[in-house]
UniProtKB/TrEMBL annotation:
Spans through the membrane: 182-200, 235-255, 261-290, 302-326, 332-352, 359-377, 414-436, 448-467, 479-496
The organism of origin for this protein: Oryza barthii
Bilayer topology: Multi-pass membrane protein
Protein name (record): PA domain-containing protein
A single cellular component GO annotation: lysosomal membrane
Main localization (coarse): membrane
Length: 534
């Protein structure tokens, strides 16, 4: 990125807020943070004074690093130096352009502070200003096992608000709507759409097969009303509530145990789920063309009967997931993560079912409060948003946890990714899939059914989420805060208006012809049997 046409007071002086009155710098002596050769500076508050077109502008207060040279404490000894935005913005790899004595403005990112400073110095920078990702200031320290600490440029950390203000002065305007958000919206809506149609198709095939067997007078272990179709799991109210409780416990565990090794464990778990999801989706698609291979089975130890088509597809899925895991730090790795994530979400929505509107309402209502609590309310107890910290993968070198769909912000000078959590797609998707299954069972058209309006509700709620995200200047938003009222509200309102709310709420399916009872009834001597009655 080209250097900004402004100057910043770069060799920073000790904060004038109280330093002058005290007759010296504002220094914090910390014996707990490790001091090692090359990393033994005291933590000192510093002032960053900015100029725009030769005129003095705002000033910002940050903290100096343990490493690097001591920052000059007299304003008259400081120099004015141009400010330049790093490219890449986190400076976790070597800058693409030579800096030629400018000061680099970088984001916190996921790599070590010392790593940023080394890359900045190697590119020719005279200093580095790091913008923290939270409002608080961190102490920029070195790890105990670091040895290469020959850093000869000063480093200062600014809090998030000050950094954003400084960045805004010296960078191009951010786009009102980044294309990444548009594509992420399309990706989320498309995933729910595909998963809903697959779920409804599977349910209809299972129902047709059951009715065929019942008409033939065979004993069937399958019971649609009480157990769901084979291979599918119907959740109930208790499991819906328990899901949110377990999710909260898991989120706290992620927050408390967040470290590199724990993220590695999450990557392994994600890969296992991604392989299963990708395999299930590919087998379902390819079985249309390779029916013989999909209907021929081979017994595998520990796995039981497995189709030949599954055996053929599995190696590809495993290799795909392993390649993503190995190369997940590359700039293009988001593509593999999204493919595995979408396949996993579609598979779960196809297998797990909401049997009626009552269960769907309980599930989404609990998820509604869950999202709000862990994004907003958790700040009161943990002093930061637990959900956002876990999603970003703070305290690790990873670019967030893998349980996300993400797309790089291509036209944003800040860079980074637009993300959406699996739960923001999966949980509303279960309700949308229920709506389509009901419509098909009731033989409703697209206009007279519930699926179209639940999809419109989901898309509108997600759209409002991104609008709120931009209005709040990028502060994380709980997507279910907006999605749940639109999606659930559409179904309940339509059901009430059409007089079908009780049927949706309790039974979750329309009145159906009972072919088994009809078959067992003695037929009258005259006249045909009425097919609309049991």
């Amino acid at each position: 990125m080209a250097a900004a046409t402004a100057a910043v007071f770069a060799l920073l002086m000790a904060s004038a807020l109280a330093g002058a009155a005290a007759g010296g710098d504002i220094v914090h002596h910390d014996d707990e943070a490790p001091k090692i050769p090359g990393c033994s500076n005291d933590f000192i508050l510093v002032k960053v004074q900015s100029w725009v077109n030769g005129k003095e502008d705002d000033e910002y207060v940050g903290v100096g690093a343990r490493f690097g040279p001591q920052i000059v404490s007299k304003e008259k000894h400081a120099n004015r130096t141009r400010l330049m935005l790093a490219d890449p913005i986190d400076c976790c790899t070597s800058p693409k352009e030579k800096v030629s004595g400018d000061i680099l403005l970088v984001q916190r990112g996921k790599c070590k502070f010392t790593k940023k400073a080394k890359f900045a110095e190697a590119a020719g920078a005279s200093g580095i200003i790091i913008i923290n990702h939270v409002h608080e200031l961190y102490k920029m320290v070195c790890e105990k096992n670091e040895t290469d600490l020959d850093i000869n440029i000063p480093a200062v950390l600014l809090p998030r608000d000050a950094g954003f203000a400084l960045h805004t002065q010296y960078s191009p305007d951010r786009p009102v709507v980044d294309t990444a958000e548009v594509f992420l919206w399309l990706m989320a809506v498309g995933t729910v759409l595909c998963a809903s149609y697959w779920s409804a198709w599977s349910a209809r095939e299972a129902l047709c097969e059951q009715e065929k067997l019942l008409k033939d007078g065979r004993e069937v272990l399958l019971n649609v009303e009480n157990g769901g179709s084979s291979g599918m799991i119907d959740i109930n109210v208790a499991s819906a509530i328990m899901f949110v409780v377990v999710a909260s416990c898991f989120l706290i565990m992620l927050y408390k145990m967040m470290s590199s090794w724990f993220v590695e464990l999450l990557v392994v778990i994600f890969c296992i789920g991604g392989v299963e999801g990708l395999q299930t989706c590919l087998v379902a698609l390819l079985s249309r063309w390779f029916r013989a291979a999909s209907e021929s089975f081979f017994k595998v130890p520990f796995f039981g009967a497995v189709s030949y088509l599954t055996l053929a597809v599995s190696p590809f899925c495993i290799v795909f997931a392993v390649l993503w895991a190995v190369h997940r730090h590359f700039t293009y790795a988001w593509i593999g993560q999204d493919i595995l994530g979408i396949a996993l979400i579609i598979t779960v929505i196809q297998i797990v079912r909401v049997p009626n509107l009552k269960v769907g309402s309980v599930l989404l209502s609990c998820a509604f409060f869950y999202d709000i609590f862990w994004v907003f309310v958790s700040k009161r107890w943990f002093h930061e948003s637990v959900m956002i910290v876990v999603a970003r993968g703070d305290k690790t070198d990873e670019d967030g946890v893998p349980m996300l769909l993400k797309i790089p912000r291509m036209f944003d000078p800040w860079g980074g990714y637009s993300i959406i959590g699996f739960g923001d797609i999966l949980l509303p998707g279960l309700l949308v899939a229920f709506a389509l299954r009901y419509d098909w069972a009731a033989k409703k058209s697209l206009q007279t059914g519930y699926f179209l309006w639940s999809m419109v509700g989901y898309g509108s709620g997600l759209l409002i989420t991104y609008v709120a995200l931009n209005l709040m200047d990028g502060h994380g938003q709980p997507a279910l805060l907006y999605i749940v009222p639109f999606t659930l509200g559409a179904l309940i309102s339509l059901g009430w208006k059409r007089g079908e709310l009780w049927n949706l709420w309790s039974k979750g399916e329309p009145e159906r012809v009972c072919p088994h009872h009809m078959h067992m009834q003695p037929q009258p001597k005259t006249g045909p049997v009425d097919p609309s009655s049991c």
